[in-house]
Amino acid sequence: MRFLPLPDAGETPVRVMTIAGSDSGGAAGLQSDLRTFALAGVHGTSAVTAVTVQNSLGVTGFHPIPPETVAGQIRAVVEDIGIGAAKTGMLATAGIIDAIADTAEELGIGARIPFLVDPVCASQHGDPLLTPEALATLLRRLFPLAHLVTPNLDEVRLITGIDVVDEATQRDAARALHDLGPRWALVKGGHLRTAATSTDVLYDGADFLEFEAPRLATRHDHGAGDTLGAATVCAMAHGFAVPEAVAFGKEWVTRSLAAAYPVGAGHGPVNASWRLREFP
Ligand code: PXL
């Protein structure tokens, strides 16, 4: 695999930001994003949106961070440290989304700064991570700012009403998502369990691109979507065009799924530390 260039000692590295929730179990959310950022060789920063109470069996509650504190974290980092790209994960409430959108517009996130929006709605156990009315706010405020949106098939159904069952409906969903304003829409195929491969479809309003990977039989896949987005946003921060960034993210998450491990009695995390065995 082609890796991202690593910074030399004393050199300021590429910086990225995740705007996401904390997973106390260390599998998903900002913990997985920061892990991938470090292993990909970029400096990771974070704006925490919510603190979840979570382990391998599920999410039993969350506490949202005040919107002005979320906005303050973004502004503090961008104005001093600077970022090459940003991604979102769990956003929790409509008030937090409005604050992120206002701050993004003020600071050029989604204009000058590449912006990946992962419309996280629920955990893999179906526990809600976004209030129902907040999804409409996310679509209205953040999709038009996004360079890339990366829903899974459950999120696609909630957003577009389309039940993806094959390649044709996956393309229909990509069209419907693109109509909501992002430059690129990626419909992740990992949840289409009847398919022999895990194929993601990327659409820019003109052409469809497919990213295919073997379907890996593991129940330890917690944080897979976050890890795909995190690796992709690292490549975007390095200046990759979106299709090349997605190709990097797809290979990264496929290797992380192959290296996944059990912790707890439920679903264990994907494991980006395969990267440690492959330096440089
Ligand atoms: O994988 C989506 C996700 C994002 N962020 C947080 C999560 C999860 C899934 O559990 O807990 C905080």
From TrEMBL:
Keywords: ATP-binding, Kinase, Nucleotide-binding, Thiamine biosynthesis, Transferase. Gene3D superfamilies: 3.40.1190.20. One of its GO terms (molecular function) is ATP binding. CDD domains: HMPP_kinase. It comes from the Bacteria. It is an enzyme of class 2 (transferase). GO terms for biological process: thiamine biosynthetic process; thiamine diphosphate biosynthetic process. Its EC number is 2.7.1.49, 2.7.4.7. GO terms for cellular component: cytosol. Residues 23-271 form the Pyridoxamine kinase/Phosphomethylpyrimidine kinase domain. Pathway: Cofactor biosynthesis; thiamine diphosphate biosynthesis; 4-amino-2-methyl-5-diphosphomethylpyrimidine from 5-amino-1-(5-phospho-D-ribosyl)imidazole: step 3/3. It catalyses: 4-amino-2-methyl-5-(phosphooxymethyl)pyrimidine + ATP = 4-amino-2-methyl-5-(diphosphooxymethyl)pyrimidine + ADP; 4-amino-5-hydroxymethyl-2-methylpyrimidine + ATP = 4-amino-2-methyl-5-(phosphooxymethyl)pyrimidine + ADP + H(+). Catalyzes the phosphorylation of hydroxymethylpyrimidine phosphate (HMP-P) to HMP-PP, and of HMP to HMP-P. This is Bifunctional hydroxymethylpyrimidine kinase/phosphomethylpyrimidine kinase. It comes from Tsukamurella conjunctivitidis. The lineage of its organism: Bacteria, Bacillati, Actinomycetota, Actinomycetes, Mycobacteriales.
